[in-house]
Every structure is written in C-alpha cells, then in structure tokens.
Amino acid sequence: MSVLKKIEAKLEMMAPGDREIGQYIVGNPDQMLRLSTAALAAEIGRSQSSVVKFSQKLGYASYQELKLAVSEAKAQEWQVPAGVIHGSIEVGDSYQVILKKLIGSKLLSMQQTVAANSERIISRALEKLDGARRIHLVGVGASSLVARDFSYKLLKLGRNVLHDSDSHIQMANVSTLGPGDVLFALSYSGASIETLRIAELARKRGTTVIAVTGLHDNPLSRVADLRLYTIADEERARSSSITARDAQLTLTDLLFILLVQKQPDANDYVHNSEAAVSVLKADRSS
C-alpha cells in the first residue's frame, strides 16, 4: 500500500502537528524528497524531532526510510491515460468532458484499490473463502448490489452462499454461523450500522470476518479478522457510490477469478450453470 495513501487516510486522526507534516508530504511529495529533516521542519514551522517522530509513528526507523517509501510510491504512481481527465465533474461540463472525467475516476479507483491490497492479504482472504463451510455476504445500499453479484458468482462454483438484501434476514442467517464459516462484509464507510451489527454477531459466534472497506480507521475494520481495502474518490465522482462500487467489484471479481483457478472442477460448474440457463434464452433460429 502506498505510504502517501496511508498518510492521507490517517490525516483526520492525527494530532495537529503530525497533520501539518502529513498534509505537506501528501501535497508536495516531490519537494519533500529534496528536503532534509531540518529543511522540512523549517518549511512547515515544526521541530526537527517532530519530523523524525512522525516517520517513526508510520513504522519507519528514520526519516530517510520514509523518504525512500515516498520515492517508491512516486515511482509506482499510475498515470491516467492520454485523453482521460481525472477531476471533479462540474455542472457546466460538456458531455465529452463528463465522460472523460468519469472514466478517469473509475480507472484510478480500480488501480489504486489493487495497489492498496498486497498479494499476501489477497491470498489469505482467498484461503478463507476457499476453505469456508458457508460464506455469508452482507452489505447495504450499493454494497448490497456488489454482495449479490459476488454471491451469484460463488454459487456458480457450487459454494454454499448466503445473501439477502433484508438486514433482518441477514442477521437471522448470521445467527446460524460458527467456526469454519466466513462473513464477507462490504462497506466503504465501515460505519453502516446494519453491516456493523451483523459483523459483530458473526465475530461473537467464532466466524471469520472479512471486511471490504475504506483505508480510514472505522468500526467495521476494527471488528474484522481480515481487511481488504477499497480506494474511492466520491468527491470527484459526485454521484451515488460510483467509484466505491467499482473498487469493490474489482476486488470481488479478482477473488472470483482466483477461486476459479484454485478449484479443480470450477470450469465444470461454470459450464453446467451456463447450460442450465441456456434453456431459458429465446431460440433465435425459429
């Protein structure tokens, strides 16, 4: 996960002094790389020791290690393709500008979401899902739509999946879970009360809780055993959870593809599902 994204996600929870340092680094990473601890401290009006302590609070032994991490983050920074605009959609934007901004926001959200989750954590989530006796998918609003889509995909692989858009039924279903089961909870804010209460009950029953949520500290992430992170710029998209939904779908689609690879008879299950559905499609030859 990019150190710049980590800092940005933690800004609101930082003490005022640390927030000033963090805001400068996030807003001016190139300049920061050229500054010593003393120069950075002078630039923002803080003490040299506060810069060093800021680096240590992020898990780095020194300011030089933090600079190295920022340098690596800049090197890996994804560039929006030529012709695509990433920025706030304004009321006066033309149709073509809106298209370019929307596509730019979606692409950036998906790319940053993939970058925020290491292969190790994805593999751990995959292992839990693959070995689960039952998988319960939960989410409200737009997250519920993503949960439903993922449930359909898992059912195609013959997995024992539970999903319902009604939170009361979700809670009742979770009351039957236990060790060996998995609760897969989606909430970008991590504060949706229905999803949180369901996750808390699942945790009490010994069920593994996998949360798909934002980078910021939130109640759902604190309940979860495993956390998968989504990056979404809702201020720029300015619409109902568009980029958050895209970010969630990126992760669930990735997990589905990895499960298909891992499951020896996956192709048989998918083929049987397609064959069963084909009889419901109109015969265009007649």
Largest sheet: 5 strands, parallel
CATH homologous superfamily designation of the largest domain? Glucose-6-phosphate isomerase like protein, domain 1
Tell me, what is the CATH class of the largest domain?
A: Alpha Beta
Number of helices: 15
Number of domains: 2
- Amount of beta strand: 5-15%
CATH architecture identity of the largest domain: 3-Layer(aba) Sandwich
Q: Could you tell me the radius of gyration in angstroms?
A: 22 Å
Average pLDDT, all residues: 88
Derived structural class: alpha/beta
For this structure, the CATH topology of the largest domain is Rossmann fold
Q: In percent, how helical is the residue content?
A: 55-70%
Helices and strands, in order, run as HHHHHHHHEHEHEHEHEHHH
Q: How far apart are the first and last residues' alpha carbons, in Å?
A: 55 Å
Indicate the multimeric state.
single chain
Tell me the overall shape.
globular
Give unreliable regions as ranges. Answer: 236-240
The total of beta strands comes to 5
Widest sheet, order of strands:
2-1-3-4-5
What does this structure look like?
This protein has 15 helices and five strands. The chain starts with a helix and ends in an 8-residue tail after the last helix. The longest helix is centred in the middle third of the chain and has 22 residues, at 95-116. Helices cover 59% and strands 8% of the residues. Helix 1 runs antiparallel to helix 2, helix 9 (142-156) runs parallel beside helix 14 (242-262) and helix 10 packs parallel to helix 11 (193-204). It has helices spanning 3-10, 16-27, 29-33, 37-44, 48-57, 63-75, 95-116, 119-130, 142-156, 167-174, 193-204, 219-223, 234-237, 242-262, 266-278, and strands at 135-138, 161-163, 182-186, 208-214, 226-230. It has 286 residues and is of the alpha/beta class. It folds into two domains: 3-78, Arc Repressor Mutant, subunit A (Orthogonal Bundle), CATH 1.10.10; 108-278, 3-Layer(aba) Sandwich (Rossmann fold). Strands 2-1-3-4-5 form a five-stranded parallel sheet, with helices on both faces. The protein is globular and about 70 Å long.
